[in-house]
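Troubleshooting log. The previous run stalled partway through. Resubmitting the same two chains, unchanged.
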Amino acid sequence: MKYTALKGVHDILPPDIFIWQKVEKAVKDIFSAYGFQELRPPIIEATEIFIRSIGETTDIVEKEMYTFTDKAGRHITLRPEGTAPAVRCYIENHLYTLPPPQKFFYYGPMFRYERPQAGRFRQFFQIGAEAFGVEDPKIDSEIISMLKLFFERLGLKNLNFEVNSIGCEKCRPDYKKALLNFFSDKINGFCPDCKRRFEQNPLRILDCKVDECIQLRQRAPRVTEFLCSNCRKHFDTFLSFLKLLNIPYVINPNMVRGLDYYTRTTFEVTCEHLGSQNAVAAGGRYDKLVEDFGGPPTPAIGFAAGMERITSLLKSSGNREIPAPAVFIATIGSPAEKEGLVIASTLRGKGIWVEVGYSGHSLKSQMRKADRLSAEYVLIIGDDEINSGKLKWKRLSDRTQGEISFNEVYNFFIAPYL
RNA sequence: GUGAGUGUAGCUCAACGGUUAGAGCGCUGGACUGUGGCUCCAGGUGUUGGGGGUUCGAGUCCCCUCACUCACCCCA
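Second attempt completed without errors. Output:
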């Protein structure tokens, strides 16, 4: 084979594409019921945007970005995530002058240079949603509720909703200090990764998978114990709304998010059937990011859901709906073939999916073809039908058949589809 | 970036180091010459991922390389 797709990227084609379309439809239906409108930012942005938002020392920025300089020497990056571009878009287009909340969703490919594995790719599609301008935890609960409804619409089961609060710029430093203090005499027992984490990002020690580290952190202070009164109140109210909305959740104080911009509420929707990368959606508040980007102080919250992870769950739970033509026109002989082509064209003009046979195949093989396509009806036209002025129809599902005159065809097929 | 596993027909997979690398599915045609699904018959395809080595002989063993898969790191 001369050319193959690049590592970690994939063609999406039938029948998988039907699952993708199903998800895309659910996004539009559910998200619009919550008043989220679509945003289509570009796929490339100035590199600086990602460095400043995601964080200079994160893996995404340090080693995973597709970055290049264009012909004018600008530093450009293929977006590795969607929040930073959405924030840039919000500020640049002065959307903060509109009444809050401003709620948006977006859908499209993201790019990270990583080793591919189950649920992880170099080009991957995310569904993102962002709500700007509201601090009220009510909107946090609406976001979770929207996700729950979205997954329910898709028929996904066995999902876990994990929530946490990582505090604000006031209380988080205190927690970080307490954590460092607690771990300082345990460094020697850590795995090599956690020794590194202790220096770079001690919060990450909390979700290490190595047994020794899990043991050592048993009695570690919990972030929820260090929340300032405002954050505490925000979190408690958020949780009370989740209860009100009947959303089963688990507080996971060890859940830390990888991106620097998060504040207060964070959450993840996970599923055991996904393999090691078990999050189908994740997000949180980023109350300082708009301000950091030069906009007015604007609280905000958002999430991203991984399209490939969602479609893989749908695939493994037996989603196999393949669209089928309404009519297959089988013809014998040249006059009939011409007649069939005209009928096909007319029905298609009414939006009916019609397939025709090709290259003079036998009636038998055309019938077989119609069957393979799962066509609902077959129209049979041959010399007899041309002469009698009546063509034959057959419904494949129950083998019923009959005759109709040529000028009845349109009512016969079009009426049921109006 | 680190580690492990797998590469054979369009797909899923067989083949103790030993003849001409097979089967199922799918596809096309026929039996049924104008009626699909079931059955039967017929038909075609391989640089065994690529390169090198060991051997009388390599799909099989060894080395290199590439790709894919899974896991770590990290993350949707």
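Takeaways: The longest strand of chain A covers residues 102-111. Chain A has three domains: 16-168+246-316, 172-226, 327-417.
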